[in-house]
Predict the structure.
Amino acid sequence: MTLLALENVSVAYDHQHYILRDFNLNIERGQFISLLGPSGCGKTTTLRLIAGFLEAKSGQFTFNGKNYTKVPVNKRNFGFVFQSYALFPHLSIFENVAFGLRLRKVSDSEIAKRVSRMLEIVSLTGYEKRFPKELSGGQKQRVAIARALVIEPDLLLFDEPLSNLDANLRVNMRVEIRRIQQELGITTVYVSHDQEECFSISDQVAIMNNGVIEQLDRPSTIFKYPRTEFVAKFIGFSNFIEFAYREDRDGEIWLKDKATSFRVPKHAGTDKSGGRKIAIRPEDINITADSPFIPSTGQIDTGKELNQVAGAVMVSTFLGRSYQYVVRTEMGDFTVNREMEEPYANGQKVLLTFPGDKLVIVN
Amino acid sequence: MQEKNRGLALFTLLVYVFLLSPLIIIAATSFEPGTIMKFPPQGFSLKWYENIFKQSLFMETFKISIIVSFVGNLLALLLGIPAAYALSRFDFRGKEAWNAVFISPVLIPGIVMGFTMLKYLVVTYHLPMMPALFIGHTVIMLPFTIRVIASSLSNFDFSVEEAALSLGMNRLRTFFVVVLPNIKSGIIAAVIIAFLDSFNNVEISVFMTGPGVSTFPIQMLSYLENHFDPTLAAISVLLMLLTAVLIFIIERLLGLSYFTKR
């Protein structure tokens, strides 16, 4: 069931420059959805719009069946967790968490009960009398989460909540956030530029670019089947081949150029009708040493087998577990990763094989 | 490693002597028992301190100076806090120009300001002396008020304000409950700095005083025209003490806020 809907929403800071234009987003009840993208893609703007810190120039925001477009931020009952924690510096941890409850005229005994339960959830029991400046970054962010949750918000919003924390703490905190969110079953919108962070905790990820959602899917689907070139690049597909012709056959798509032809079996990643560009990850290309000269004829074998192309290693770099090669072929340069003991030498003739099930057609 | 440099040490000593000796001389002469300022003093007496409190004009003008500073400060805060908030919080067209307008009284020579005020407030609009003094002093205090409060706000994370909004508080109440307590030390520092500036002011006040209405520094000047006894030295010592105490308070406030920035 749709809980939140942005319909044809536009946001602009001045008359020409739109951050969002005719933007649409639907979020189901109970879902954890992430907005992911490079800086300036409009993800934070979207979040601040949902929170009510920003007003849309046009379009409608519906929440729980009601029109929320003009509802001011303080009447929305959404919890917001900030990148900078934004705790009240002059209030104790107890009063920070109690802040929203005091505004809701909750009785003192009830406040004490709910605050201590919430501090228990974020594992900060015993910190009630401390002040924000006496806490570490991770502790501050847990107070901020407790403060946002204690009001039993209808929606929980996170704006890059972990980017000020160090790497280990980030991993722990994101597990915490996911645990708390699932425990309370609260619909959550999470903004980050960290791909691993978003993919690990979200039910759905929306990848944004230039104010547009390029793809909204389950993390595993995006990871395997990016729909657009931007998404593919963003999640690590570094090889793209564009073909001039396309032919749809039974269970297979044939892509042809003057010199080469590729066959891609139809699967979940190839359902873009008319798409003529394929993408593949560097670790999915098979690379083998090849003697490209056919001894009997002295001609260059350009890879007569299915989805093969011959080339030569131009650059090799060591990645730790594997080596990465840049291979030059007649179809262009490809980046290929392979785990091996000894790397190929520069100039080594190699044969690249592109497994059909790893090829994705992108728009 | 500390290097000893006799030349530099001597130079520093001379600077201190140059800066402090007038103050020491004034302090010493304030204890002179005779009727003329002398250095070194010929004895020890507190009678000129006593004399300050016997002179009704000093007591009266002191009261006026305090009232003018107080009212001016209040007006400067009422104008300055919202102005500083708007300048720090929002981006708007002509922000730089507004900033310049608010700071301009510092850039204009005091004597010019004073004369302008006289011309417009008193001569053109026939304002009585007291309200004219209030306005004049508000104008000279305003730049300090805005500067100090704005610098205090620049250390304030406005997402704290947004946090309060998202928890259900309205904007106005958020300002009083969340923003004000966190710039408290800046406001107190602004009040003290503005007070000192107003209390010591001569250039503006001199144009807006007349029979019956005068400020403390103006009264000191007119006393000096007729008397050369050590009363003024005694007053100077008291004013130095007052200033020292206030500066100490600012130091504590701004010093503390400096260390609690994060």
Observations:
- Chain A has two domains: 2-229, 236-362.
